[in-house]
Write a structure and sequence with these properties.
Layout (H helix, E strand, L loop, with lengths): L3 H9 L4 H8 L3 H9 L6 H11 L3 H4 L6 H11 E5 L7 H10 L3 E5 L5 H5 L3 H10 L3 E7 L4 H10 L4 H13 L8 E6 L5 E6 L2 E6 L11 E5 L6 H15 L1 E2 L7
Parallel strand pairs: 2-3, 3-4
Antiparallel strand pairs: 1-7, 2-5, 4-8, 5-6, 6-7
Helix pairs in contact: 2-3, 10-11
């Protein structure tokens, strides 16, 4: 049986068998056996392959990682729990933003606090994109039912829709810049997410409470762990259903 996950991961990473063999330091025929005969490499090679193609080794070789190992690794991904979003030091937000080198993803209804509380957030985000960091902004449609309902749940009525409109206006000057992609979603969110490379802040949503008053999980991705990828899969599903937005769409 062939390892179609590994084959697809190579294609997705634009890597050839020869290219992967050079990165990992093995013979190309060894890589061929990993694919065509579903041979499971030693752990050091699994980690190297996973890093090269941007996938977890547990995804590429599910039988190589036991549930006990996956559970232990997943627990290690939890860096800490903040009792509320407001309890997160501004230095953490600024540090994660400035240190990102590959990817920044934001999923929320409005997240206006980023513009209001994080020093130089907009300018820094634009600079990160100019430096080559891929930025994805996935924020709420002010006119959608999910935003209306969440506003009622938080007891702020139409104010949440107003915040959505405001945050889109904050982001408008950057929406047509290279490396910045923006989409407007209409989904019910059970958590807001802020991803900076392998670090992720997950702001839980609780009925009747504002997001700023709700606990935040701080995660760091580890190969073989489940928590980081579980939440990020939720981001991807929301992103896939959202519609693209350009600066001209924001009035």
């Amino acid at each position: 049986m062939a390892n179609e996950r590994l084959r697809a991961a190579l294609v997705g990473a634009n890597l050839s068998v020869g290219g992967l063999s050079e990165i990992v330091g093995v013979d190309p025929k060894t890589v061929e056996r990993w694919i065509s005969k579903d041979r499971v490499p030693h752990r050091v090679h699994r980690m190297a392959v996973a890093s090269a193609v941007g996938k977890d080794d547990g995804f590429l070789w599910p039988t190589a990682v036991s549930e006990a190992q996956r559970g232990e690794t997943s627990r290690e991904e939890l860096v800490g729990i903040h009792p509320s979003r407001g309890a997160i030091p501004m230095a953490l937000w600024s540090g994660l933003l400035n240190q990102a080198r590959r990817q920044i993803d934001i999923l929320a209804f409005a997240a206006t606090f980023l513009h209001d509380a994080v020093p130089d957030f907009d300018a820094t985000l634009a600079q990160r994109a100019a430096d080559g960091v891929q930025v994805r902004l996935c924020l709420g449609d002010p006119a959608c039912d999910a935003v209306r309902l969440r506003g009622l749940e938080e007891g702020i009525g139409s104010s949440l829709a107003d915040r959505c409109t405001l945050t889109w206006k904050y982001f408008r000057p950057f929406l047509d810049e290279p490396n910045i992609a923006a989409r407007m979603h209409e989904q019910t969110l059970y958590a807001s997410m802020f991803r900076f490379d392998d670090d992720l802040l997950v702001n839980t949503h609780v009925l009747g409470s504002a997001a700023g008053s709700s606990p935040v999980l701080q995660l760091h991705h580890l190969p073989g762990g489940r928590m980081f990828t579980h939440f990020l899969d939720g981001f991807e599903r929301t992103w896939d259903t959202a519609r693209a937005v350009e600066a001209a769409d924001i009035t």
